[in-house]
Write a structure and sequence with these properties.
With about 170 residues, the chain is an alpha+beta fold. It has a single domain, classed as FAS1 domain. Helix content is about 40%, strand content about 25%. It contains 8 helices and 7 strands. Strand 3 and strand 4 form a beta hairpin. The longest helix is centred in the first third of the chain and has 18 residues. The chain is globular, with a radius of gyration of 17 Å. The termini are far apart.
Length: about 170
């Protein structure tokens, strides 16, 4: 029995160590729910940057989030001539610091119920709590909910969201 427990502990610790050697890009690439995001990151030429030292916090929209955009939007953004617009949108999902869920909740509390977060794309996001769920409002007035938090990699953390965040138009 003691041997089984020791083996399980060793397996668990090696799994955690393996996960922390993956970058946030590696984590996204391994997610079936983020194939559109991965394609967009590659089209924008951001994979190398987001595989760098960081730390980064990425609010990662799911495939379903991208599907909520008007028809043809994603296809248009993936075209080479839309690289600047795509880069702006994607970098509005990235913060140049690691903020785990507990850090985000503390920032909201310290801000009296709202935390203003600056992204690498120059966007300002408004973060609030609603019924225990983290809500993010973008510059265009859209709102995303964090549906999974603290997917931690070697260079930051991913929080999965249910909508694409957009810069001011």
């Amino acid at each position: 029995m003691k041997l089984r427990i020791a083996a399980l502990a060793l397996l668990a610790s090696s799994t955690i160590a393996f996960a922390e050697t993956k970058t946030i890009v590696d984590i996204a690439v391994g997610s079936a729910d983020h194939t559109t995001l991965v394609a967009a990151v590659q089209a924008a030429g951001l994979a190398e940057t987001l595989s760098g030292a960081g730390p980064f916090t990425v609010f990662a929209p799911t495939n379903e989030a991208f599907a909520k955009l008007p028809e043809g939007t994603v296809d248009g953004l993936l075209k080479p001539e839309s690289k600047d617009a795509l880069t702006k949108i994607l970098t509005c999902h990235v913060v140049g610091a690691q903020a785990l869920a507990a850090d985000v909740v503390k920032m909201v509390g310290d801000g009296g119920g709202t935390a203003m977060v600056d992204t690498l794309g120059g966007c300002k996001l408004s973060v609030t709590l609603d019924g225990g769920m983290v809500k993010i409002t973008d510059e265009a007035g859209g709102t995303a909910t964090v549906t999974a938090a603290d997917l931690t990699g070697s260079n930051g953390v991913i929080h999965v969201i249910d909508a694409v965040l957009l810069p001011a138009s």
